[in-house]
Design goal:
The structure holds three protein chains of three kinds.
Chain A: H1 2-10, H2 21-40, H3 70-92, H4 100-119, H5 127-150
Chain B: H1 19-44, E1 58-60, E2 63-65, H2 71-96, H3 100-130, H4 139-170, H5 180-205
Antiparallel strand pairs in B: 1-2
Chain C: H1 13-25, H2 29-34, H3 39-68, H4 78-112, H5 121-139, H6 141-144, H7 179-207, H8 220-252, H9 265-299, H10 306-319, H11 335-363, H12 372-395, H13 397-403, H14 407-437, H15 443-470, H16 486-515, H17 554-559, E1 560-562, E2 568-570, H18 600-616, H19 626-643
Antiparallel strand pairs in C: 1-2
The chains are: A mainly alpha, B mainly alpha, C mainly alpha.
C-alpha cells in the first residue's frame, strides 16, 4: 500500500532525493522484492513449521518474574497520552511563552523516562543496562551542548 | 530470530543478562550518539537558513513567510507512535503469559500503528515538498529531511521486524520460552519511539 | 515399490547449501574459510588482510618519501601527492592498525577469558567480511576516483582530501570526481565492521568469562579491549553522521557544509574530531594492553600496580571525550574554549604517565629475557613516551599555533602510531605467533627486524621534528632548495627504506618460521594467562574443560608457588611445563557443542558495497539498479541469518 503510494508520489520524474518519496520508498520496495523472490525461489531457508491449528497452549496468569502486568502498562500509556496533550496545549498558550523551553524539556524528559523505565523494563532489569544506556545519553548530550555553545548556537 | 548463537547454551552468563539483550542495549546506547549527532546538527542550523521556506511563521525584511510545521498533524502522528509503544509492550505482556492469540493481535496493531506513522511522514514530506522545501533548498530542508528521514528509515526497519515476528507468531513459533525475540524487537521499537519524543519536542515544538 | 527406478531429482538450492555447510564443518579448503565462524580463524584472516593493507600503505609512504627526498622533485604531481597521503593515512589508521588490533581481540580474548568462542560467532564473521569489503571498496577508488578518467588511462584515482576529510574542501566543488565518495562510503562500511566487533567483544567480555574470572582477575589486554570496544561503539556513530552529511552534500546537493547557504565548516571539524580523538585511543589502547602482557611474562614478575594500569586505561578512555578541540585551536573557538581544552589535554597525560611508570616498575628487578616481543615492548615504552611528550607540547595553545600544520605534528603522531601502536602490535605478533601456528618465530630474524625497524623509525621521524621547527609545512608535495630542509628530508627517506627492509625481514621470518620443523609447545614463554594452558595451535573448541579461575595470572599461579623463604618455585614435579596440557587433546572434543559454519555472514556483508556503488553513481541509469541489488543481498543475508539455526 505504501509502496504504491511511493510510486504515485515519485511519478512526476523529479531527480532522486529532490523527491522525498524515494527516501521511504526504497526500503519498502526492496522489502517487497525480497518477499517475492523468497516466495518464488526454491531456497529452503528452514521456514518455521506451521503449528497445528488446534495446538493447545496454557495461558499463565501470573508469570513469576516481577514484570508489571498489562493493566499497569495501560496506566503508563494513559499518563504518556496526557503528557503529550499537555505539551501541545502549552505550545498554544501565549502566556507561557517565556517558560516554554523549560516546560517542554521537562515534559518530554518525563515521557522519555517513563518509556525507558517501564516499557523498556530498565526499572526491573539489571542496573548494568541502565548504566550503559545512560552513558550513551549523557555522553551525547554533554558533547553536543559543548559543540553548540562553542559554535554560538543556543536553544533559546 | 533463532535462539542465541552462544557457543554453550547451558553456560550461564556472568551477569545473568541474556547475551542478545546486552547486545541490543549496547546498540541502542550507540544509536544515541547517532541520533544525537543528527539532532545536534538540526539545532545548530535551526536559525541559519538564509532563504525560505521556514519551519515557523516569521517576517524577514518585511516579507512574511508562513511556517511549514503543522503542529496538530504532527502531534497526532507522534501520538500514534507513542501508542504503538503501548501496544508493543502489551504484545510482550501477552506472550509472557503464553497468550499467543494476544501476541498476534498486539504485534499486528503495533505494525499498523507504525505504518500509519510512516504514512503520515510520507504525507508530511510531500506537503513540504509541494510548499517548496527540498533537501537542497536551504539548511532547514537539509537538516530536517535527513534527520526525520533517518528516523523514518529506523521505523521502517522496525515495521519489517514486527511483521516478521507477526508471521512467526501466526505459525505458532513464538512461545513464552522464546519471548526474548519479542522483547528485543520491543526494545528497538521503544527506542525509535523515544527518539521521536525528543525530535517532536526539540524540532517541532521549540521555536 | 521394489524394482521401480526412482530418478534422483537435482538437488534443490537448499540441499546444496546444506551440503556446503557440512563441507565447511570439516575445517579445510577454501569453503571452510569462507564459512568459518571460529574466532581463531577470523583473527588470522583479520591479521593477514591487515598485513596486506600494511604493504599497500607502506608503498604509498615510500612514494611520498621518494618525492620529498630532495627539493623540487617531480616523481608525482601535487594532485597525485594529495591522493597518496590521503590513502596512506586512511589505510594505516582504518585498514592496518584497527584491524590488526581486531585480529588480536579475535585471537586472544576468548582464550584469555576461558571461553570457547565469542558471544556471537556469526556476527564476528560478519565483522571480518564487512571490513574486507569496505577496504576493497575504498581501494577501488584508485582505479576510478579521478575525474579526468580511469587508472588505465593514466589517471591515479583515490580520495584527495586527507584522512580528516575537512569539509567543505571535500565537497564536489573542490574535490571533483568520486574519490571522496568512495572514501566516505568505505569508512561507513568499515564503521559497521568495527561497531559489530565492538558490540561483540563487550558482550563477550562482560558475559562469557570462565567461572571465577572476576573483572579484576582479567588480564590487562582484556581490559583494554573492553575499553577500546566502548570507545568504538560510542565514537563510530558520530563519524557516521558526519559522513552521511558529507555524502548528502556531495551526491544530492544538500547544504550541511555549504557556506553560501549558511552552513559552517566547523560542524565537520567538530564531528570529525569528536570521533577522531577517541579514535586515537582506539588505536593505542590495544597496543598498551599487549605491552602490559608482554612485560610481565618476559620479566617473570607480575605487572606492577595492576589496578592502576587498569584504571588509568579507563581514565584515558573517559578523558579522550573531552579533548577533541585541541585539533582546532587555530579555528577561532575563543580563548575560553582553547584554555579549557588545553587543560584537559594536559590532564590526559597523567594517566598515560601512570602507565609508563608502572611498565618501568614491572621491568625493575625482574629476571628479564630480551626476546623479540620484549624488545618491541620496551621500544614501545621509549618511543611512545617521546610521542606522548610531544603531544603535551601541542596541548599548549600558543605553542600549538606555531606547530599547526608543520612536520612537527606529523612527527608527533607517527611517533605515537608507529613507535607506539605498531611496535606494540608487532610485539604481540611475536608473542602470540607460537600459540596460533605452533612454531616459534625465528629469534635472530626477529632481533634483526626489531633493530632495523627501531633505527629506521628514528631515522625517519626524528628529522621530521626538526623539519617542523624549521617550519616545513605538511601536506605539500615539494619544497624549494635553500630552505635547509634537504638534509633532514633525505635522512627521513633513507629511514623509510630501512623500515621497509625491516618489514621484509619480518615477512621472511614468518615464512621461515612457518616452515620450521621445531614445535613451540603449549607454553613457550612460561606465560601467565589462560591461553598458555591449552595446546598450540588451540583445538577448535579451545578448552576441553572450561577452566576454574582463582586469581589474577591464574595460569602462572598454577605453575608456581612461593616457598617459606619467599622464593618462587615450580608448584609440582616436572617444572613449569609439567602442566597436563597434552592430555586434554583427544578427550571430549567431539562432544562439545559448537556453532555450525555459515556463509550467511559473508552474504549479509556483501550487499553494502553494491548499495554504496549504486548511490555513488545514482545519476547513471545503468548503475542505479545496484541499489536494489544491494538491498536484496542485504535482506537475504539478514533473513537468512534470522532463519538459519545457529547449530545443527
Amino acid at each position: 500500500m505504501l509502496e504504491a503510494l511511493t510510486f504515485v508520489l515519485a511519478a512526476n520524474g523529479k531527480a532522486f532525493f529532490e523527491n522525498p518519496a524515494y527516501l521511504l520508498g526504497i526500503p519498502l520496495i526492496a522489502a517487497g522484492a525480497i518477499g517475492v523472490l523468497l516466495a518464488m525461489s526454491p531456497i529452503e531457508l528452514k521456514w518455521p513449521q506451521r503449528a497445528p491449528a488446534e495446538e493447545e497452549y496454557e495461558i499463565v496468569d501470573h508469570p513469576a518474574d516481577g514484570h508489571p502486568d498489562a493493566a499497569e502498562y495501560i496506566k503508563v500509556g494513559l499518563i504518556l497520552a496526557v503528557i503529550t496533550a499537555l505539551e501541545v496545549a502549552i505550545y498554544y498558550v501565549d502566556a507561557l511563552e517565556g517558560a516554554l523551553l523549560a516546560i517542554l524539556l521537562v515534559l518530554s524528559a518525563m515521557k522519555f523516562v517513563l518509556v525507558a523505565l517501564w516499557f523498556m523494563h530498565l526499572r526491573f532489569d539489571n542496573k548494568l543496562l541502565t548504566v550503559m544506556f545512560s552513558a550513551g545519553m549523557v555522553l551525547v548530550t554533554a558533547l553536543f551542548v559543548i559543540v553548540l555553545s562553542t559554535l554560538g548556537a543556543s536553544l533559546v | 530470530m533463532q535462539h542465541a548463537p552462544t557457543v554453550d547454551a547451558a553456560h550461564e552468563t556472568n551477569t545473568g543478562i541474556d547475551n542478545r539483550k546486552l547486545l541490543m542495549w549496547l546498540f541502542l546506547a550507540s544509536e544515541c550518539l547517532f541520533f544525537g549527532g543528527m539532532i545536534g546538527t538540526y539545532l545548530l542550523y535551526r536559525n541559519s537558513s538564509v532563504e525560505g521556506p521556514y519551519p515557523t511563521d516569521r517576517v524577514i525584511d518585511g516579507v512574511a513567510y508562513s511556517g511549514l510545521f503543522d503542529i496538530p498533524f504532527t502531534s497526532v502522528s507522534a501520538f500514534v507512535l507513542l501508542m504503538s509503544s503501548v501496544t508493543m509492550v502489551l504484545a510482550l505482556a501477552a506472550i509472557r503469559r503464553n497468550d499467543r492469540r494476544g501476541l498476534q493481535i498486539w504485534l499486528a496493531a503495533t505494525a499498523l500503528l507504525g505504518m500509519t506513522f510512516l504514512a503520515g511522514q510520507v504525507f508530511e514530506f510531500t506537503e513540504f515538498y509541494n510548499e517548496g522545501l527540498t533537501l537542497n533548498s536551504n539548511l532547514f530542508g537539509t537538516s530536517f529531511f535527513v534527520l526525520t528521514g533517518f528516523h523514518g528509515a529506523h521505523v521502517s526497519v522496525g515495521v519489517l521486524i514486527l511483521l516478521s515476528l507477526w508471521v512467526m507468531a501466526r505459525r505458532g513459533r513464538i512461545t513464552s520460552e522464546n519471548a526474548m525475540n519479542v522483547e528485543l524487537a520491543g526494545l528497538y521499537w521503544h527506542f525509535v519511539d523515544i527518539v521521536w519524543i525528543v525530535i517532536f519536542t526539540l524540532v517541532y515544538l521549540l521555536q | 515399490m521394489a524394482g521401480v527406478m526412482i530418478e534422483r531429482p537435482a538437488p534443490t538450492v537448499g540441499e546444496a547449501l546444506r551440503r556446503m555447510r557440512e563441507q565447511g564443518a570439516t575445517y579445510q579448503g577454501v569453503w571452510s574459510w569462507l564459512t568459518t565462524i571460529d574466532h581463531k580463524r577470523i583473527g588470522l584472516m583479520y591479521g593477514a588482510t591487515a598485513m596486506f593493507f600494511f604493504l599497500v600503505g607502506g608503498i604509498e609512504a615510500l612514494i611520498i618519501r621518494l618525492q620529498l627526498a630532495r627539493p623540487g622533485l617531480t616523481l608525482v604531481d601535487p594532485d597525485q601527492y594529495n591522493r597518496l597521503f590521503t590513502m596512506h593515512g586512511t589505510t594505516m589508521v582504518f585498514l592496518v592498525v584497527m584491524p590488526l588490533s581486531a585480529a588480536f581481540f579475535n585471537l586472544v580474548i576468548p582464550l584469555m577469558i576461558g571461553a570457547r568462542d565469542v558471544a556471537f560467532p556469526r556476527l564476528n564473521a560478519f565483522s571480518y567480511w564487512t571490513f574486507l569489503f569496505g577496504g576493497m571498496f575504498m581501494s577501488a577508488s584508485f582505479f576510478t576516483g579521478n575525474p579526468a578518467g580511469s587508472f588505465f588511462e593514466g589517471n591515479l584515482g583515490a580520495p584527495d582530501g586527507g584522512w580528516f576529510g575537512y569539509a567543505p574542501l571535500t565537497l564536489n566543488q573542490f574535490s571533483p570526481g568520486t574519490g571522496i565518495d568512495y572514501w566516505a562510503f568505505g569508512l561507513l562500511i568499515l564503521g559497521v565492521a568495527s561497531m559489530a566487533g565492538g558490540f561483540n567483544f563487550i558482550v563477550t567480555i562482560i558475559n562469557m568469562r570462565a567461572p571465577g574470572m572476576t573483572l579484576f582477575r582479567m588480564p590487562v589486554f582484556v581490559w583494554m579491549t573492553l575499553v577500546t570496544s566502548f570507545l568504538i561503539i560510542f565514537a563510530m556513530p558520530i563519524i557516521t553522521v558526519a559522513l552521511f552529511q558529507l555524502l548528502f552534500d556531495r551526491l544530492f546537493g544538500a547544504n550541511f557544509f555549504n557556506v553560501n547557504a549558511g552552513g559552517t565548516p566547523l560542524l565537520w571539524q567538530n564531528m570529525f574530531w569528536l570521533f577522531g580523538h577517541p579514535e586515537v585511543y582506539i588505536l593505542i589502547l590495544p597496543a598498551m594492553g599487549i605491552v602490559s602482557e608482554v612485560l610481565p611474562t618476559f620479566s617473570r614478575k607480575p605487572l606492577f600496580g595492576y589496578p592502576f594500569v587498569v584504571f588509568s586505561g579507563i581514565a584515558i578512555a573517559f578523558m579522550s571525550w573531552g579533548v577533541w578541540a585541541h585539533h582546532m585551536y587555530t579555528t577561532g573557538l575563543g580563548s575560553v574554549a582553547n584554555s579549557a581544552f588545553g587543560v584537559s589535554t594536559l590532564l590526559i597525560g597523567v594517566p598515560t604517565g601512570v602507565k609508563v611508570f608502572n611498565w618501568l616498575a614491572t621491568l625493575w628487578g625482574g629476571s628479564i629475557s630480551f626476546k623479540t616481543p620484549l624488545l618491541f615492548a620496551v621500544g614501545f615504552i621509549g618511543m611512545f613516551t617521546i610521542g606522548g611528550l610531544t603531544g603535551v607540547m601541542h596541548s599548549m595553545v600558543p605553542s600549538d599555533y606555531q606547530q599547526q600544520d608543520t612536520y612537527f605534528v606529523v612527527a608527533h603522531f607517527h611517533q605515537v602510531l608507529v613507535g607506539g601502536a605498531l611496535f606494540g602490535l608487532f610485539g604481540g605478533i611475536y608473542y602470540w605467533f607460537p600459540k596460533f601456528s605452533g612454531k616459534l618465530m625465528n629469534e635472530r630474524l626477529g632481533q634483526l627486524h626489531f633493530w632495523a625497524m627501531f633505527i629506521g623509525f628514528n631515522l625517519t621521524f626524528q628529522p621530521m621534528m626538526i623539519l617542523g621547527f624549521l617550519g616545513m609545512i605538511r601536506r605539500t608535495s615539494t619544497y624549494e632548495a635553500g630552505l635547509g630542509f634537504g638534509l633532514w628530508n633525505m635522512m627521513s627517506t633513507v629511514g623509510a627504506f630501512v623500515i621497509a627492509f625491516s618489514v621484509a625481514v619480518f615477512l621472511v621470518n614468518v615464512v621461515v618460521s612457518m616452515r620450521s620443523k621445531e614445535k613451540a609447545g603449549a607454553d613457550p614463554w612460561d606465560g601467565r594467562t589462560l591461553e598458555w594452558a591449552i595446546p598450540s595451535p588451540p583445538p577448535v573448541y579451545n578448552f576441553a574443560e572450561i577452566p576454574q579461575v582463582k586469581e589474577l595470572d591464574d595460569h602462572w599461579a598454577k605453575k608456581y608457588v612461593q616457598n617459606e623463604a619467599g622464593e618462587t618455585v615450580p608448584a609440582m614435579v616436572g617444572g613449569a611445563n609439567g602442566h597436563d596440557e597434552e592430555e586434554d587433546e583427544d578427550e571430549g572434543g567431539h562432544n562439545i557443542h559448537l556453532p555450525s559454519p555459515s556463509i550467511i555472514p559473508l552474504i549479509a556483508s556483501a550487499g553494502m558495497p553494491f548499495l554504496a556503488a549504486g548511490f555513488i553513481y545514482w545519476d547513471n541509469p545503468w548503475m542505479l539498479p545496484l541499489i536494489p541489488v544491494g538491498a536484496v543481498i542485504t535482506l537475504v543475508g539478514v533473513y537468512g541469518w534470522a532463519l538459519e539455526p545457529a547449530t545443527e
